Amino acid sequence: MSKKAKHHAGDDGSKVRMKRQVYEDEMRRLHGELVAMQEWVKATGAKICVVFEGRDTAGKGGTIKRITERVSPRVFRVVALPTPTEREKSQMYAQRYMAHYPAAGEVVIFDRSWYNRAGVEHVMGFCRPEETERFLETVPAWEKAMTDSGILLLKYWLEVSPDEQTRRLQSRIDDPRKVWKLTDMDLKSYSHWYDYSRARDAMLAATDTAWAPWFIAGADDKKRARLNIITHLLSQVPYEPLKPRTINLPKRQGPKGYREPDLPLRRIPTPFGEL
């Protein structure tokens, strides 16, 4: 067993908790690769669309945050659409999502996507059964049109166990830092575990295609899930690091008579001190 693998499993093959430093070291390396990918996307005009789906608490938001925290928001855009307006409800279903597709030099990440129609809308009765059936019939062609236009489409389903979902929801209830994440819809959805399982199964069966396959990520362990997903995402993009630029700071101009003005500035209190 490699030295790296020893961080992932015990002698009996059981999972052990990944050490924070190991996790951060791996994440630092992956962040460097994401920056290299970003520069390649900008230089080549690539168009990348990444979809994250999964049950409530599966870790979609945390994974997206780690993907985007060291890259430019001008290249990596996160789309998390709210409940559709009355006007949007009257539009063609795909219409409000198409407006957010990537242009050249962009990576667009959907935190939930058009697959709401196969998931929460279907399970919670926000659309008619025939609307879900029609969606599942048409979305492969819709996604074929995306990929034919030059968009690299990556779809991830984050899978969380019922016990882990319960633990995470309870932690949101008990932690004032997380309670904002707990919505009424989360509570309603919690009791529909097997309805969501059936909806997931139907969605995967109908929309896993050669041009837009689904990639399943076990997400009970958040650290490992994030590292695994980012590693896989990088493996799916045919980027090559660009030649590093030689960067030298220019000489700073002289003051040319400038003096700090004596203004009545309102400085913030410094209960923690300042240098």
From TrEMBL:
UniProt-listed SUPFAM superfamilies: P-loop containing nucleoside triphosphate hydrolases
The entry's keywords: Kinase, Transferase
One example GO MF annotation: polyphosphate kinase activity
Gene3D superfamilies listed in its UniProt record: P-loop containing nucleotide triphosphate hydrolases (3.40.50.300)
Subunit structure: Homotetramer.
Role this protein plays: Uses inorganic polyphosphate (polyP) as a donor to convert GDP to GTP or ADP to ATP.
Protein family membership: Belongs to the polyphosphate kinase 2 (PPK2) family. Class I subfamily.
The name this protein goes by in its record: ADP/GDP-polyphosphate phosphotransferase
Encoding gene per record: ppk2
